[in-house]
Amino acid sequence: MTARVALVGRPNSGKSSLYNALTGGDAHVGNFPGITVDLLEANVTLPSGGVVTVTDLPGLYSIEAVVDPATDEGVAKAFLDREAEATDRKLVVVQVVDSTQLALGLRLTRELVRAKLAVVVAATQRDVLQAEGRTLDAPALARAIGIPVVHVNARDSATTRRDLVAAIDALLADDKPPSGVETWEPADVAAKVVSEEPSTKATARRRAFTARADGILLHSLVGPILFLGLMAALFAAVFLVADPMTSLMDSAVGFARAHLSRWLGEGLLASFVCDGVLGGAGTVLAFMPQIVILTVAMELLGASGYLARGAFLVDRILRLLGLSGRSFLPLLMGHACAVPAITATRIIRDPRERLTTILVLPLMTCSARIPTYALILSTFFAARGAWTKAAIFVFLYFAGVLSGLVASLVLRRTATSGRSLPLVLEMPQYRLPQPRLIAKKARQSAARFLRDVGTVIVAVSAVLWALLTVPLPASATSSIAADAPAIERSVAAGIGRALEPITLPLGFDWRINVGLIGSFGAREVMVGTMGVIFGIENAGDDPAPLSVRMRDAKKPNGAPAYSTRTAMALLAFFVIACQCMSTLAAIRRETKTLRWPAFVLAYTYGVAYLVAFGVYQAGGALGLG
Amino acid sequence: MTRDLAAVLPGESAVVTSLDLEAELVAWLCAVGIGCGERITVLRRAAFGGPVHVRTDCGGEFAIARSLARSIATSTASSAPHAREDEERE
Predict the structure, then answer these.
(1) CA trace torsion A605, A608, A613, A619 (10° rounding)
(2) Residue A35 has pLDDT above 60, yes or no
């Protein structure tokens, strides 16, 4: 008979660390009928030679309370119900319990025992408990509740894995039905099995840290100021820290382009490699440092326990707009990428609030917008200092947040109106983030970005190069001046020009239109697209940075092609438009209908057009060049 | 003295006596240690009617919407170990 091990536990109980320790970090996405959520699973070999599949379930507080099946808790509960009923395989539930908050975790243990499940308790945070001068008597706990208990330190992977697989193996070898004690009080049991050494000054200081930190970070006046300052510093740092690295990578790409160009000579192959692939994908590659830095910052905030504090601070404001502190976590995550953030909305217990959060998430400034923002800032605000550019960068982030909040206010009074469940949110203890896990996330985000550049952006750049190289029939280009560059007679230029009647009121010419079409499915393609266009247009010249080429671009009459107000209108458009097929697919997956992704596409593009129009026209009225 | 959880002052403890809420929400709150008979310590209240930050007897800390706290009736706890503990820390 095969066996499955389900890893369960409250959110923030150290489940991810234990999963990594148990499986060696190996994971693939499981496919479970009736469950549309991606659950990570891995095979683990037991000392007896058997192999079990370990599945990491979403965070869970209770299996007895009724919850919305679309939420994290609902998914975990449905999984346990289904596996418990399966007759062809055994189920062992490994419950991860934070030993520093034993009584809280044991409430779920009691429910699992009452449900007649075969349970192993994995009590984590052994090192933290010891540092606090406390010890857990694991054998006494096992005797009190009648099930195996393993006290582990997930940072010591080898010992954790050895102890845990031994306990799982023993439980699987036992053919008797589960015999846990069903009636006991978690607080009483915890008080008996956790002993405390006489308090020392150092221990008291450690235990008071959370209280003192909360006293400052959640202070009515100081807390919100620190919160806003932290957010502004974070977004500014993304620009200021990464900008020199981005310039360096940009120069490296330019250097490679110049050498390849000399080596390959002239001709279609040289144009394809230098202007198409390197001009497109290579230009986008230079923005990887910013994306990695943003990911690291988000992970640090989440792992330290500060995100829940942020949720506490902003709950009142979000409530006025129809959301709650629970929406804050996915909304902040959306600043890295909307796709995992849409999945993270499963922590929101209220269906209406969850849907509203999903619908406004595409307005948060995700990392894919960074290349375009950075390009526009370095092109049109080059004369300004780094701090001014960083300030504009921060403003764009807050503009995204503001537009999301306005959209939420409107949606909660129209499409998603109705009463919501009130907030109940766990405030986890502060933790020191594990560098290994943060580094892993950074590697993953860099790998994902490289994969996108290597596949989607290279493909789009290649197609675009072809469309910008193949000319339209002569009859279709009779209105174009004879001495105009060949690119102006290309198929892509023809398509871009056909859209100009709609986009010229926004200051967008055919080149930007081609960029917008190219970035319809993924907004990071915009920079690559512009790189290809200006690469071909300026072929034969020195490979100057894209920003210089865009700044020097001219209209047929010799006037500058773009002005500051064009830049502002383009930024406004990018703040709002949902140019991301992956996001739309995630919305489709989470809402199980095409209606909501279509709605998001329509409302974001409609509003983006109107706002960009307003910005460009207002800029003209104010005399901006 | 009987009062709702929103009226309990920061640093004070109270015992939950009843929850005037939907059954599903009551079940979930009980599962995390905010049920009848449980002692709760209020740590702080956010400004402008924001959430209440509480600690349960099990050691879990939760942010609870003020509207929800108003639906949780409490009576004064006979002793408040957590509050005393916090005072000692100061």
Answers:
(1) -160
(2) no
Cα A418 to Cα A215, A322, A411, B67, distances in angstroms: 35, 9, 11, 16
d(CA A446, CA A443): 5
ipTM of the complex: 0.85
Distance from CA of B15 to the nearest CA of A (A): 15
Condensed to tens digits (0 to 9), the pLDDT of residues A36-81 reads 456 788 888 888 888 899 998 888 888 887 777 778 888 888 899 8
A405-429 tens-digit pLDDT:
999 999 999 988 887 778 888 888 7
Q: Characterize the bridge pairing of strands B2-4 and B72-76.
A: antiparallel
What backbone phi and psi angles, to 5 degrees, belong to A416?
-125, 35
- CA pair distance A276, A523, nearest whole angstrom: 18
Residues on chain A touching B37 (C-beta within 8 angstroms): none
pLDDT band at B22 (very low <50, low <70, confident <90, very high): confident
Contact status, residue B65 vs residue A324, Cβ threshold 8 Å: yes
Chain A partners of B32 at a C-beta cutoff of 8 Å? Answer: 61-62, 104, 107, 424, 426
Say if B1 is an interface residue toward chain A (CB within 8 Å).
no
Q: How far apart are CA A47 and CA A170, in angstroms?
A: 10
Neighbouring C-alpha atoms within 13 Å toward the C-beta of A106: 29
**Cα–Cα distance, A389 to A286 (Å, whole number):** 18
pTM: 0.75
CB contact under 8 A, B68 and A208: no
